[in-house]
Amino acid sequence: MVQSIFDFLKTLVAPVGRLLVGDHLDAASSYATDIDAVIGLIAVLVGFWFILAEGMFFYLILRYRKKDGVRGQYITGKETHLKRWITWPHALIIVCDVVIVFMAVKVWYDIKQDLPEAQQTVRVVAQQWAWTFEHPGPDGKLDTPDDIKMSDELHVQVDTLYHYELESLDVLHDFSVPVFRLKHDAIPGRVITGWFEPTKTGVYDIQCAEMCGIGHGIMGARIFIETAEEHAAWIADNSPATRLAAAVP
Ligand SMILES: [Cu+2]
Predict the structure, then answer these.
(1) Same domain, 15 and 103
(2) pTM value?
(3) Beta strands across the sheet bearing 202-208
(4) Local confidence band at 249 (pLDDT 50, 70, 90 cut-offs)
(5) At 174, which CATH number?
(6) Are residues 128 and 107 in the same domain?
(7) Could you give the CA distance from residue 238 to residue 146 in angstroms, rounded to a whole number?
(8) N or C: which end of the chain has fewer CB within 10 A?
(9) Each residue of 100-145: pLDDT tens digit?
(10) Domain limits for position 133
């Protein structure tokens, strides 16, 4: 029931969300279009009342501007026939608020509260002013000798559900992947688990979205979303055993 109401609303407002986000930014995670839909819904409902209220405001200013020979009325604000101009829009706006809260809470729950089971886990470590990404090696597990550590490069496989363990070595940072519509604060001393599922291959930006010092603006990285074959080849090429073999003559 909740899901079908959500899907209905999403179908209505998704094109507006898409329009606002623009063509330059792909939607490359399973939940990106849900976030865009919430942005679209807020734009439609708030935009409607904004235009209506401003239109009414200017209409009244022009319609009842000063005229020679016409005295202004004294209005106490208690007249029932005038008060309804406030109470009716007020009630309708509360209904709109309920719709926005419903959609926002549903999307928040799905993305941040509900943690679907992971197929892979990566570790994301932020520090002033770089990212370290720890990928599981051929054994598919983190914290084993075949892990692949990369600076400013995160390699993932498309259509795979990832958990990330987000850490910071020094100050507050924020792991932001715009094509996923993902932003998550990294807090020193804590390991924060979140998830994403890439749905589109390509190379995209990662950025830090929390002021973290003088190098904040250059704290960028890249995410490489690869097909299963490409990702397997990348793991094979970069596993510690392969690198060691290449280093030893
Ligand atoms: Cu930063």
Answers:
(1) yes
(2) 0.84
(3) 153-157, 221-226, 202-208, 173-177, 182-186
(4) low
(5) 2.60.40.420
(6) no
(7) 10
(8) C
(9) 999 999 999 999 999 999 999 999 999 999 999 999 988 888 998 8
(10) 120-247
